[in-house]
UniProtKB/TrEMBL annotation:
The chain crosses the membrane at residues 21-43, 55-82, 140-161, 167-188, 225-245. This is Transport permease protein. PANTHER family: INNER MEMBRANE TRANSPORT PERMEASE YADH-RELATED, TRANSPORT PERMEASE PROTEIN. One of its GO terms (molecular function) is ABC-type transporter activity. Its main location: membrane. GO terms for cellular component: ATP-binding cassette (ABC) transporter complex. Keywords: Cell membrane, Membrane, Transmembrane, Transmembrane helix, Transport. The gene is yadH_2. InterPro entries: ABC-2_transport_permease, ABC2_TM, ABC2_TM_bact-type, ABC_2_transport. It is a multi-pass membrane protein. It comes from the Bacteria. Pfam families: ABC2_membrane.
């Protein structure tokens, strides 16, 4: 393992984050706080509680997951796309470092940033509502697993994209809508039976449900199913990345 190479990529990506701390950390935290204030205030007055949990506290896991998903994808996608755009990717590919180590560097940094933002949102939310995490280790496990999985997806998007517009399309047109419709602000049990069944097609429902279980010990779906879904997603992303580096798809052309 070329630890020095992995660490160099990781440190470079993390340094870029802190150079643009307003955009990388402050903006998503501020946006989530605004969601929290608007949805918590507007809907919180209409919905006393869900499953015995105050509405303001109920949406905290959803808000964290919403941000972690979008930040993981965006951070990793931009991280690998920018060296492709400038041509410096060839220096990385010609360095004595394997594709596993390249992924570790870029995905590790992207996941670290989104986990950091997620924890800041959790800390910020604690100033507004009382939060009691029933399963803290599961919560951290879910957070890390989700951040890594979606950073892998972002890396794939960064390799696939041929322009900045394509780079933004999937996070804006797919990830964000799926997150909003995945139960970030409500329980899918509140939906009519037909739409409950439709919601089960959305993979983000399983992530938010499992993450919410780690907070409050209750969820819309079985925790084992949530863990299986995120694990399958992780494996699928790894398989696609293996194919990308094996064929050199859009990296060596």
């Amino acid at each position: 393992m070329n630890y020095r190479g992995v660490l160099s990529i990781y440190q470079f990506e993390m340094a870029r984050t802190f150079r643009t701390i307003g955009q990388s950390i402050a903006a998503p935290v501020l946006l989530t706080v605004l969601y929290f204030i608007v949805f918590g205030s507007a809907l919180g007055n209409q919905i006393a509680n869900i499953d015995g949990i105050a509405y303001g506290a109920y949406i905290v896991p959803g808000l964290m997951m919403l941000t972690v998903l979008s930040e993981s994808v965006s951070n990793a996608a931009f991280g690998i796309y920018f060296p492709r755009f400038t041509g410096t990717i060839y220096e990385v590919l010609s360095a004595p470092i394997s594709f596993v180590e390249i992924i570790l560097g870029y995905v590790g940094a992207a996941a670290s940033k989104s986990i950091m933002v997620g924890l800041i949102i959790l800390l910020t939310s604690s100033f507004f509502v009382d939060i009691n995490i029933v399963h803290p280790f599961y919560m951290l496990g879910f957070l890390i697993l989700t951040a890594i999985s979606f950073s892998l997806l972002g890396f794939i998007i960064g390799v696939w994209a041929n322009g900045f517009q394509q780079l933004q399309n999937i996070p804006l047109l797919i990830i964000m809508p799926l997150s909003f419709l995945g139960g970030s602000f409500y329980s899918i049990k509140m939906l009519p039976p037909f739409w409950q069944k439709v919601s089960l097609i959305n993979p983000v429902v399983y992530l938010i449900s499992g993450f919410r279980w780690s907070f409050y010990g209750s969820a819309d779906l079985n925790i084992e199913i949530s863990l299986i879904m995120i694990s399958l997603f992780l494996i699928a992303c790894l398989a696609i990345l293996y194919w990308i580096f094996k064929t050199g798809y859009r990296l060596k052309s």
